[in-house]
Amino acid sequence: MALPQKKYYRQRAHSNPIADHCFEYPARPDDYNWSTLFPKTIEQEQKNKQVEFLDVGCGYGGLLVTLSPLFPNNLMLGLEIRVKVSDYVNDRIQALRSQHPDQFQNIAVLRTNAMKYLPNFFHKGQLKKMFFLYPDPHFKKAKHKWRIINKWLLSEYAYVLAEEGIIYTITDVKDLHEWMVEHFVEHPLFERISDEELKSDIIVDKLYESTEEGQKVTRNNGDKYLAVFKRIPDGYNPN
């Protein structure tokens, strides 16, 4: 099975996350049949295995493919709102599984709206890592409410993220970087991880070049702004 060609899956880079799209979603996480996305892993290995890594707005799936062999025992899911792009990622994963039968069984993609339906798919404290790589900056002030990082959604991310879980963000837009850092720092359930601590994190280096958007920024000699945050335990009191 040949890998898909992006030229057949192109569509607009922007999508209105507030608009009503046609999505199917479960009433609660236990109602979703995850074996449809991870058939070999769940049906043959561990029936109760759950997604632990979540790439929100996964684009063409570069991060999933990069991290899959590094964390073979963790299920990873990419969320993508655009139809053709999510179709591409799914076809890419199926082709990789066909070419490498014992690999890439731990990654999958789901077309949905992360701003609306995360609690429908994930239990409290289920996720260990979340990724927001080059999210849509929605430059106009009137559209800042569309940004995937805002004070309301951060509480939702804190709900599905395990204590001590990590959120990775990277962007080439300085204003958006400052916006995300400000909102995370102001939120009582997150704290920023220092650059010194990040030196031992093998994932960090992969964030710069694994995605199509990151590679495009490199070709254009653009800047990349990284910020990583940790989920503070409930009831944590630094004093």
- Helical stretch count? 9
- Distance, first to last CA: 58 Å
Shape designation = globular
Strand content: 15-25%
Q: Share of helix among residues?
A: 25-40%
Radius of gyration: 17 Å
Task: Count the E strands.
Answer: 7
Subcellular location: Nucleus
Binding site for S-adenosyl-L-methionine: 57, 80-81, 113-114, 133, 211-213
Family: Belongs to the class I-like SAM-binding methyltransferase superfamily. TrmB family.
Pathway: tRNA modification; N(7)-methylguanine-tRNA biosynthesis
Task: Walk me through the structure.
It comes from Papilio xuthus (Asian swallowtail butterfly). InterPro entries: SAM-dependent_MTases_sf, Trm8_euk, tRNA_(Gua-N-7)_MeTrfase_Trmb. One of its GO terms (cellular component) is nucleus. The protein has 239 residues and is of the alpha/beta class. The chain is 32% helix and 19% strand. It has nine helices and seven strands, in the order αβαβαβαβαβαβαααβ. The protein has helices at residues 39-44, 62-67, 83-99, 114-121, 151-160, 174-186, 195-198, 206-209, 212-219; strands spanning 51-56, 75-80, 107-111, 127-133, 161-171, 190-192, 225-231. Strands 3-2-1-4-5-7-6 form a seven-stranded mixed β-sheet, with helices on both faces. The longest helix is centred in the middle third of the chain and has 17 residues, at 83-99. The mean pLDDT is 89.
